[in-house]
Design the sequence.
């Protein structure tokens, strides 16, 4: 407000401009109004002489200039001086002069009169000296004129206007005083109500204090009673303890006496029994010595007779051996003579047959030459036509056979796709004779039908009420093999996948399961899946030769050990030293490994020697779970390159037979040191394999498949994706101690069984002509 008042003052006198009081806001507080009502009559007490001289009403709205008359300047200066010296509320607020008649100003309160001046107080108006000089200068030019301020009528009119304004302001101040009185009455009633409320609160507080003192007294009494009860209880407990100690000491002494008596009685009985048994032992020893002497003498006689009989038998054997040697020599001579006779007979028979055919040919030629030329020509044309028909029929038959082979491959692939491009077989190994642990309760509900289900009775679980229950875990796979199943029956189920590899598809067969569940036996034993697959491939390749197919087979055997690749067909001293890299040809979907031994397989016997060599180089170690646990993943890679020289068709198939390392829990295997590192790498790679299969099962087009998270999955990238056929063997142990690991393996196999990896693609191309 001080800023507003300062902004609206006259530039010379520092008084407020007309109309500024009326433009003040009506939001003044009741306190300000009360003070105004109290101090409003102060101007009337100062008397008429205290009113400052005023300027004409017409001079309120205009700015004083230096061109005014000398009298007007003098009056203005005297009015400013009087206003500054008297400092009444009315003059400080309203100032000399009157307001325009259109405004109804209200009287200024005494608050403004009691205020201290601010830092930007009203500046002192300029003196009339400059005005006089200016007016003298103007008078010298225009002539001196008498100002209107000396006109009595004008001054009287001005005073009347000022008086009327003052009366109206006093009236307005009275009205405001009446409003403030009503406000004071309201505040008084409110104060009385608050005083009544305070008295009530005081009474309530007093009563609550009385209750608090009463409660404190009761609490002190209760605490005293509690202390007395505690002291009485402690005294009683001390008495009871002393009484119990006395009774315990009495019972202890009685027990010692009874124990001493029983010990003495026992010692007497023991001495009596020892004496009795010693007597019996001495008698038994004497009897046994007599029997031993008799047996010894009898044995000596029997031994002597046996030696004599043995010498006689030796002589007879030597004689018989001599006779046998003579008979063998005679038999050998007879066999040689018989062989010579058979050779002569065969030679004679061949000569006889040759002569007979020559005779028949000569006879036919003679007859043909003797017949007429026309008959010979007709016979020749007829034979030529028959030969051409036979050749055409043979060629048609061969073409039909080739088409049927192509159709067979398509139908075979469709059957495999209907069965699923990823299949899961479950096999439970039999219990070994060296295993004395309890076997788990495993059932095969549909063993007589399709044999696709397996049920395991879970471990005992105790509920909160103390009841013991066992959960029945049921799993379904493409095929379940019981403990009595042989490798031959298992291979019958996977032989169709081996045929798919010959047809040009990527096939991957891997064994998964805990350590000691029979994975290596299933894959790499003498009658395992690897030897049987190679034998089938050779037999099928030979049968396809008459249809124009020629196959070339190459094999690699690698292991993934601690996320490093080792060549199992290389030199043993180079293991863990050579660095092998995996490289993929994304266009041809082929995988190669650098600096690895590749063996061209000419016969099944070469596969057996290769398996023995790889088994000798594979990393194995003993753990708490298995005496000979495979510490690496072994991968047998068989590449089949086929070419049909008739149709020009080529096929490139790959068969990956994988024996995974045993999955085991660290709490069960108790591996430490190097074994701990191996176990961690094994479990990490198996987890990555599960992640890859799960990502393939989502079937998102262009989705990320985490092949690179593990060397195993990166190596099998083209054998696990959509252009391959995959078979998983989940191997299970029948022991109850391995039930938790068995359930974990079966749950993982169920996840794989519910995965669909898309349609496989055949790797074929037609030879350029």
Sequence:
């Amino acid at each position: 407000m001080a800023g507003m008042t300062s902004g609206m003052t006259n530039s010379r006198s520092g008084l407020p401009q007309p109309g500024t009081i009326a433009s003040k806001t009506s939001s003044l507080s009741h306190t300000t109004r009360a003070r105004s009502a109290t101090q409003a009559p102060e101007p009337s007490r100062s008397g008429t002489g205290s009113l400052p001289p005023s300027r004409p009403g017409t001079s309120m709205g205009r700015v004083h200039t230096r061109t005014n008359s000398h009298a007007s300047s003098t009056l203005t200066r005297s009015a400013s001086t009087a206003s500054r010296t008297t400092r009444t509320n009315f003059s400080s607020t309203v100032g000399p002069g009157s307001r325009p008649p259109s405004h109804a100003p209200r009287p200024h309160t005494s608050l403004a009169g009691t205020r201290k001046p601010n830092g930007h107080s009203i500046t002192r108006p300029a003196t009339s000296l400059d005005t006089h000089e200016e007016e003298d200068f103007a008078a010298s030019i225009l002539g001196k004129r008498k100002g209107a301020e000396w006109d009595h009528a004008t001054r009287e009119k001005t005073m009347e206007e000022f008086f009327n304004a003052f009366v109206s302001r006093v009236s307005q101040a009275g009205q405001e005083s009446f409003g403030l009185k009503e406000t004071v009455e309201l505040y008084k009633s409110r104060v009385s109500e608050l005083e009544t409320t305070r008295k009530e609160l005081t009474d309530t507080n007093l009563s609550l204090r009385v209750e608090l003192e009463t409660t404190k007294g009761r609490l002190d009494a209760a605490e005293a009673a509690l202390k007395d009860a505690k002291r009485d209880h402690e005294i009683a407990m001390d008495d009871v303890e002393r009484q119990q100690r006395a009774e315990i000491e009495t019972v202890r002494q009685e027990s010692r006496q009874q124990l001493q008596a029983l010990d003495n009685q026992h010692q007497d009985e023991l001495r009596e029994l020892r004496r009795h048994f010693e007597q019996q032992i001495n008698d038994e020893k004497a009897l046994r010595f007599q029997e031993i002497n008799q047996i010894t003498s009898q044995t000596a006689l029997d031994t002597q007779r046996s030696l004599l009989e043995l010498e006689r038998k030796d002589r007879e054997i030597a004689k018989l051996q001599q006779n046998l040697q003579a008979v063998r020599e005679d038999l050998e001579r007879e066999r040689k003579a018989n062989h010579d006779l058979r050779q002569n007979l065969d030679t004679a028979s061949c000569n006889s047959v040759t002569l007979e055919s020559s005779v028949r040919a000569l006879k036919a030629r003679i007859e043909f030459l003797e017949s007429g030329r026309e008959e010979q020509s007709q016979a020749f044309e007829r034979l030529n036509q028959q030969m051409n028909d036979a050749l055409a029929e043979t060629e048609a038959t061969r073409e039909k056979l080739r088409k049927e082979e192509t159709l067979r491959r398509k139908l075979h692939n469709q059957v495999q796709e209907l069965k699923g491009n990823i299949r899961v077989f479950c096999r439970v190994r039999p219990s070994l004779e060296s295993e004395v642990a309890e076997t788990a309760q495993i059932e095969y509900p549909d063993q007589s039908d399709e044999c696709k289900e397996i049920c395991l009775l879970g471990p005992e679980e105790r509920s909160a009420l103390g009841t013991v229950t066992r959960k029945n875990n049921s799993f379904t796979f493409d095929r379940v093999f019981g403990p009595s199943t042989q490798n031959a029956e298992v291979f019958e189920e996977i032989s169709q996948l081996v045929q798919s590899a010959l047809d040009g598809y990527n096939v991957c067969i891997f064994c998964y399961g805990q350590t000691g569940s029979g994975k290596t036996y299933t894959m790499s034993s003498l009658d395992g899946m690897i030897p049987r697959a190679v034998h089938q491939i050779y037999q099928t390749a030979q049968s396809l030769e008459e249809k124009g197919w020629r196959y070339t087979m190459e094999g690699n055997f690698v292991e993934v050990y601690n996320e490093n690749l080792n060549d199992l067909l290389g030199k043993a001293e180079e293991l863990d030293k050579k660095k092998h890299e995996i490289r993929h040809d994304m266009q041809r979907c082929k995988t190669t490994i650098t600096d690895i031994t590749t063996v061209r397989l000419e016969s099944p016997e070469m596969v057996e020697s290769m398996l023995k060599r790889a088994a000798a180089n594979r990393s194995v170690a003993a753990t708490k779970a298995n005496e000979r646990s495979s510490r690496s993943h072994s991968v047998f890679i068989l590449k089949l390159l086929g070419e049909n020289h008739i149709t020009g068709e080529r096929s490139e198939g790959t068969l990956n037979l994988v024996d995974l390392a045993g999955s085991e829990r660290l709490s069960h295997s108790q591996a430490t040191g190097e074994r701990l590192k191996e176990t961690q790498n094994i479990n990490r790679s198996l987890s990555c394999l599960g992640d890859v299969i799960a990502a393939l099962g989502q079937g998102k087009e262009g989705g990320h498949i985490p092949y690179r998270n593990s060397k195993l999955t990166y190596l099998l990238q083209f054998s696990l994706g959509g252009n391959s056929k995959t078979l998983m063997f989940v191997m299970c142990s029948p022991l109850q101690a391995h039930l938790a690991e068995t359930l974990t393996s079966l749950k993982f196999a169920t996840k794989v069984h519910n995965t669909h990896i898309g349609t496989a693609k055949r790797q074929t191309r037609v030879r350029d002509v």
Notes: Residues 1-124, 126-146, 621-629, 765-769 have pLDDT under 50 and may be disordered. The CA atoms of residues 188 and 349 lie 157 Å apart.
